[in-house]
Design goal:
The protein has six helices and two strands. It is mainly α. The mean pLDDT is 92.
Length: 187
């Protein structure tokens, strides 16, 4: 089960990259940066936010994998995760049931070009996929990963990967809604 779980995470990160490419295909800079409302995020801001959070998550997951290997925290699964982690994952996944404010350090700068944001986002997806592969053989429930939101909480490695993928689905759905908005500019 553990290997299949990791393969599923790899697939989800690959799909996130493909979805981002489709969402941005043929967009002008004006469309990429268009906001449906003054306080709402553009497609650019959704992808930039995911990139910022993802880069932070990647460092934390890398550290957890290295520490787990050094301490021999191996396992084959199937892995069981706690109710709190599963609840947080459900809150992260679309459809959005509850909105959360992003911490200031993860709020993107508005107005960045596609050529700066999309390649970096795609690189982050490849890094996540690589980390899922590197986690093979580890106990995905016992290995703990600090969260980028607070140092007071840690997720199991399996749930950290699931939560990262769920967070991406949440904001890719948000970006999709921007593109489907009736006011979305023609060019």
């Amino acid at each position: 089960m553990g290997v299949r779980e990791l393969e599923e995470y790899q697939k989800q990160f690959e799909q996130a990259g493909e979805q981002a490419k489709l969402l941005t295909e043929g967009l002008s800079e004006a469309q990429f940066n268009w906001r449906p409302e003054a306080q709402a995020w553009s497609i650019e801001e959704c992808l930039a936010h995911l990139t910022m959070v993802g880069q932070s998550e990647i460092r934390l997951i890398e550290n957890a994998i290295q520490t787990a290997r050094a301490h021999g925290l191996t396992g084959n699964g199937p892995f069981r995760y706690g109710w709190l982690e599963r609840m947080i994952l459900r809150q992260t996944e679309p459809p959005v049931r509850r909105r959360f404010s992003s911490p200031k350090r993860f709020r993107p700068i508005h107005g960045q070009p596609i050529t700066a944001i999309l390649p970096t986002f795609l690189h982050v997806q490849r890094q996540f996929g690589s980390l899922a592969a590197q986690a093979e053989g580890l106990d995905l429930a016992r290995v703990k990963v600090a969260t980028p939101m607070t140092r007071l909480m840690k997720f199991s490695l399996g749930m950290a990967l699931a939560q990262a993928a769920g967070h991406e689905r949440r904001h890719l759905e948000q970006a999709r809604r921007v593109r489907e908005n009736p006011g979305f500019p023609a060019k």
